[in-house]
Design goal:
- The protein has 461 residues and is mostly helical.
- A two-stranded parallel sheet has the order 1-2.
- It is built from 22 helices and 2 strands.
């Protein structure tokens, strides 16, 4: 039902625009198919971040299992070093899976990334400890993390592209927000399981076998996610590109995906920087910060983070719908301004130490983070045209995540160790907010408009 898009006037950078009523060819989306696409994409994201969440929340235990040392800070740095290593190969995965997704299809590539993510996570649960096989334990852990990192290089860009290309223009923000709903669900699943194990198991049991349970769960989750993704058809936008080519899709040179989209790539890197620095700071680093730096009770700290994520999940769809009404730019800008002004007060509350103060500080940061989690899944795919969307978005997203997002726990831990300044997390988030604010200033509003290179999409009956 898709056809070549008609020419449109350059979009405004401010308010959302209505979908044209008589602009030529339209894409009528199937609501049932859209719901299935959202579920399949969100589940894959949930599995990915279930693993990353578990790894972060149980980092202290993993440090003892794989990196024996008399220095707890050195153990934590080594564990976060392996965590960050996976992000170093994400751009490579993006450069492989992204262009492949633009050539053979989004659905096929997302099925492959699902298999690799599940296999890498499951393998971590099978690795013997350092006490059993010595140096091979951290080597195998690093290898499994690299497999995970390579596969996730094609996951987020592909999943957000998949939802964006299925969604009608007027509801793209709301539907895209469910992708990050899946992220939060994965984090809550990981945090809840770690909290339960920490409460029920002795330190000895957690060290000997308990830590393996969350990673072994990835196997069944991967099978379910693969089943859902294999049942989906290609997106209408990609199908229209294939129809225009009439033969096999021509290979787009990697250089064209970079140099031909340099402005959009710079905007993507800036937006992803503020999104991921704040995301990893709050959801991945803060549990360890509360435990190792502030000597906060581990179980209570995890429960606070769990509560913040549950609150974010409740707000997430409403914030996504808000971006459809007022635009992506105002919502993202509000998040940047909030982190710039409130990071220091929020961290001071967290450092005060009482349960109420920690909850208020973390809750404030969580509500600011929702400005990004609700907007980015629909804003980022709209930066690029259909023929290079998966590839260019994969490259820009993963370069930014690798350099700035995934390294956040490692960099902030090292900065605190070097300076002794416990306010470093706040300063780091403020710097990210400045970069994100510059990107928002230059980006074009995309709410309510067709994706670049695609026909207007309306909701079918």
């Amino acid at each position: 039902m898709s056809a070549a898009p008609v020419a449109a006037a350059p979009p405004s950078r401010t308010a959302p625009a209505p979908v044209p009523r008589a602009a030529g060819a339209l894409t009528a989306t199937d609501p049932a198919l859209v719901r299935r696409a959202v579920k399949a994409a969100a589940l894959g994201n949930a599995m990915e971040w279930f693993d990353f969440g578990v790894y972060s929340y149980i980092a202290v235990t993993l440090g003892k299992v794989f990196f024996p040392s008399g220095n707890p800070t050195a153990q934590l740095l080594s564990t976060f070093g392996a965590f960050a290593a996976a992000f170093l190969v994400r751009p490579l995965g993006g450069m492989v899976f992204g262009p492949l997704g633009d050539r053979v299809g989004r659905q096929k590539v997302l099925a492959v990334t699902m298999i690799m993510m599940a296999a890498g996570t499951f393998a971590i649960g099978l690795i013997p400890s350092y006490a059993t096989i010595g140096v091979w334990a951290p080597v195998l852990l690093l290898a499994a993390r690299l497999v995970q990192g390579f596969s996730t290089g094609g996951e987020y860009a592909g999943a957000s592209t998949f939802i964006a290309e299925y969604a009608p223009d007027r509801r793209r923000g709301f539907l895209g927000s469910w992708l990050e709903f899946g992220t939060l669900a994965g984090y809550i699943g990981g945090a809840g399981l770690v909290t339960l194990m920490t409460a029920l198991l002795s330190d000895g049991d957690l060290m000997s076998w308990g830590w393996r349970i969350p990673f072994l769960i990835a196997g069944p989750m991967g099978i379910v996610g693969l089943y859902l993704r294999m049942r989906l058809e290609e997106t209408p936008a990609f199908a229209a590109e294939v129809a225009k080519a009439e033969t096999a899709r021509p290979k787009v040179p990697l250089r064209e995906m970079v140099t031909g989209q340099w402005r959009a790539l710079l905007l993507c890197v800036g937006l992803v920087l503020v999104f991921n620095v704040t995301d990893y700071m709050l959801l991945s680093y803060m549990p360890s910060y509360l435990t190792s730096e502030l000597e906060y009770d581990e179980t209570h700290g995890l429960l606070v983070v769990l509560g913040v994520m549950a609150l974010m999940m409740v707000v997430q769809p409403f914030a996504g719908a808000l971006t459809d009404r007022v635009g992506r730019r105002p919502v993202i800008a509000a998040g940047c301004a909030g982190f710039l002004l409130l990071s220091v007060p929020a961290l001071l509350l967290i450092r005060e130490g009482s349960l109420l103060a920690v909850a208020l500080g973390m809750g404030a940061l969580g509500m600011l983070l929702v400005c990004f989690t609700a907007s980015m899944p629909s804003a980022l795919p709209a930066l690029f045209p259909t023929r290079v969307r998966y590839g260019s978005l994969s490259i820009g997203f993963n370069v930014s995540v690798s350099l700035f997002g995934g390294t956040t726990p490692l960099v902030v831990t090292a900065l605190i160790g070097a300076t002794g300044d416990m306010m470093m997390p706040a300063y780091y988030m403020m710097a990210a907010a400045v970069v994100g604010g510059v990107a928002v200033w230059f980006m074009t509003e995309s709410a309510g408009r067709p994706l670049p290179g695609s026909a207007p999409a309306v909701e079918g009956r």
